[in-house]
Design brief:
Layout (H helix, E strand, L loop, with lengths): L2 H6 L1 E7 L3 H11 L4 E5 L3 E7 H13 L5 E6 L1 H9 L2 H17 L5 E5 L6 H10 L13 H11 L3 E9 L2 E8 L7 H4 L3 E5 L3 E10 L1 E2 L6 E2 L4 E4 L1 E4 L3 E4 L3 E17 L1 E7 L3 E9 L2 E7 L8 E8 L11 E17 L2 H19 L3 E12 L3 E13 L1 E5 L5
Parallel strand pairs: 5-7
Antiparallel strand pairs: 1-3, 1-4, 2-3, 6-7, 8-12, 8-23, 9-11, 9-15, 10-12, 13-14, 15-22, 16-20, 17-18, 17-20, 19-20, 21-22
């Protein structure tokens, strides 16, 4: 089909064989051109422009000649079908309007340079200064906005906002806490024992060692002194530093009752769905039932697929609830003992991060109400802790 016929539109007409001669004569008399002529068993079919088809059909009706329009092609037929669907028309108009207006608002905010602050904390600080997804770009004054954020936030020390189309790229440097005053860092200090133990070896970096290998020490006892006597300069003070590894012993106790309460969780159900578009939020689903008296509320942020490299200003929050009930649990001695061992394993695993475990002695005690597990462990660990002291003249 040529471009002209597509823009003007065409119709496919069907005429019985009995009237085909009369119709062809009419086409010649009225100067109507046709194409795609097809012979069928009892009829003929051909195409002509919509305007010509209208003239021919009116002429045939005046002469009682049977003629039928089978189909329409081209742009007019598409527009006609389009206009018969008002929802599609409204959606198309809305899509065009949003496309035109979308370039005037911030679609997404990307944050870089944050170390201790999470992205949500940075975005929250920006929102407090009226900047974020949905901000109107023509009214933004970037330098004033940056100064406002620096004055409002104690944790942001420097910020730069760069607009890349509808994407705001935010780079920050966090405000670091000032160092301790010089006089505090120069205070002399000793190393004292954090617990009882027997000295295995000493790694001395600075100070005067006061213990020997194999010596037993008590908690709080002086291990490395920050005061030492120099034969040339007299007494001097320093901050003792080093590791004092000692063989220590710790006792841990775990008790599990034979009768207790346990939370029994039910099925997770959706309570509401909230659609976020720029700064607007709308509930698209809400459960009509009341929430159970005891339940956990769960919020899930659903990530929508991106079109291109930038994210859309569109997100969905799913709010769910999970009912639960407290149920009385009766445990056998074997079940309670197994729970004791699980809890003890977690405790020892945390201890092994800072100490070398050497031995383990476990005893159990069963009463009418509970099972008790007592574990005594021997290990080698650094027992030296810093203890500052002041110099009094």
């Amino acid at each position: 089909m040529s471009l002209t016929l597509f823009l003007c539109g065409t119709r496919t007409l069907r005429v019985p064989r009995a009237h085909c001669t009369a119709v062809m004569n009419l086409c010649m008399q009225m100067g109507i051109s046709y194409r795609n002529f097809v012979w069928e068993e009892n009829a003929i079919c051909f195409q002509c422009s919509m305007r010509a088809a209208g003239r021919l059909m009116r002429a045939c009706r005046r002469r009682d000649i049977e003629i039928v329009c089978l189909s329409m092609q081209g742009l007019p037929s598409l527009l006609f079908a389009f206009c018969r669907r008002p929802g599609l028309v409204a959606g198309s108009i809305l899509g065009i309007v949003l496309t035109v207006l979308s370039g005037l608002f911030v679609w997404s905010v990307e944050v870089t340079g944050n170390e201790t602050m999470s992205k949500e904390e940075v975005l929250s600080a920006l929102r407090e200064c009226d900047f974020g997804v949905g901000s109107y770009l023509p009214t933004l004054q970037i330098r004033k906005l940056e100064n406002r954020i620096l004055m409002a936030s104690d944790r942001i020390g420097w910020i730069s906002i760069y607009l890349d189309g509808t994407v705001a790229r935010v780079q920050i440097i966090e405000h670091k806490a000032p160092d301790a005053p010089t006089q505090d860092r120069k205070l002399p200090a000793n190393l004292v024992a954090a617990s009882d133990g027997q000295i295995e070896y000493v790694e001395l970096y600075r100070g005067n060692c006061m213990v020997q290998v194999g010596q037993a020490v008590k908690k709080g006892e002086l291990l490395v002194s920050g005061l030492y006597d120099s034969q040339t300069e007299g007494f001097r003070y320093t901050r003792a530093a080093g590791n004092v590894m000692a063989r220590t012993e710790h006792t841990y106790r775990v008790e599990i009752p034979l009768v207790g309460e346990e939370k029994v969780l039910g099925e997770v159900e959706t309570d509401a769905m909230i659609l976020h578009f720029f700064n607007f939020s709308m509930k698209i689903f809400k459960n009509s039932r009341n929430l159970p008296p005891t339940c956990d509320i769960i919020k899930n942020e659903i990530e929508l697929p991106n079109f291109g490299k930038n994210s859309l200003p569109l997100s969905v929050t799913q709010i769910c609830y999970q009912p639960y009930a407290m149920q009385t649990v009766y445990r056998t001695e074997e079940e309670a003992l197994a729970l004791c061992y699980e809890e003890m394993e977690r405790t020892l695993a945390a201890l092994s991060d800072s100490a070398q475990l050497l031995s383990k002695d476990i005893t159990t005690e069963i009463t009418q109400e509970s099972v008790i597990l007592i574990c005594t462990v021997g290990c080698i660990e650094n027992i030296a802790v810093l203890q500052e002291f002041e110099i009094i003249d």
